[in-house]
Design brief:
Number of domains: 2
Distance between the termini: 36 Å
CATH architecture of the largest domain: Beta Barrel
Helix content: under 10%
Structural class: mainly beta
CATH class of the largest domain: Mainly Beta
Largest sheet: 10 strands, antiparallel
């Protein structure tokens, strides 16, 4: 019989295995809650629902334990986690094809074994509701025209690098790139255009007033030059 491997998480570029910490994934399979307001109208049966078009954050909790040199490894792991600020990339061995954007909540309170040789604790993260596909971070290159098929059930907001100038059309949405120093990066979630640290918002014109999105199914794309597209696929 082979040795059963321990499960682990990756956060901000470090593995829990670096600190001899192992996890359970029992709290990682939850789904987010849709942000919906219920409105009661006097004299009318049933509530009206106003969908705000988004999901709320989810709390992911990992039961964790350390069985080797607890005091040293736990202290180092705790210090590393508490030093992280804002959203970082969180992944685990239960979901090898996905990752989340997460912030560590802190507040670890370990339970110790006899002689403090081992201990267990919970790690709590406040997470973006989206479960991102690692495949959605791979660049798709399109020259002049092409198609991208979104196999998920959710509309994604890509990052697009457009070389040169011209009209970029994704489905029914168009952007006119009127000026460029070699290329322009367009982050459709942040709704920003830039090259490196230089803001390029003045170099683009949103013809429909919105940034492009990749809707579920087939997306037709045209441009006068080369496009490198990071689709940012996600699910829940």
């Amino acid at each position: 019989m082979g040795v059963i491997p321990y499960e682990y998480l990756m956060f901000s570029g470090r593995s829990s295995e670096d600190f001899k910490a192992h996890i359970s994934g029992s709290g990682t399979f939850i789904s987010p809650t849709r942000d919906v307001e219920s409105i009661s109208v006097p004299g009318r049966n049933g509530d009206l629902h106003v969908d705000n078009g988004r999901f709320t954050n989810v709390s992911i909790i990992y039961p964790a334990f350390i069985t080797e040199d607890f005091e040293k490894n736990y202290s180092a792991f705790k210090a590393f986690l508490c030093a992280q600020r804002g959203y970082k990339i969180l992944a685990d061995s239960y979901h090898p094809d996905h990752y989340r954007r997460a912030m560590f909540n802190g507040g670890i309170s370990p339970e110790m074994s006899t002689l403090n040789r081992a201990g267990s604790f919970e790690l709590s993260f406040d997470c973006d509701p989206r479960l991102f596909l690692k495949s959605g971070d791979k660049v798709i290159t399109i020259n002049a025209s092409g198609q991208i098929y979104n196999r998920t059930q959710f509309t994604s907001k890509p990052i697009i690098r457009a070389y040169g100038t011209g009209t970029l059309t994704v489905g029914d949405t168009s952007i006119e790139i009127i000026s460029a120093d070699e290329y322009t990066d367009i982050d459709c979630e942040l709704q920003e255009a830039y090259k490196g640290a230089t803001n390029c918002n003045s170099n683009i014109v949103l013809e429909n007033g919105v940034f492009p999105e990749l809707t579920p199914g087939l997306n037709e794309i045209t441009y006068s030059g080369i496009l490198d597209i990071i689709p940012k696929w996600w699910t829940v």
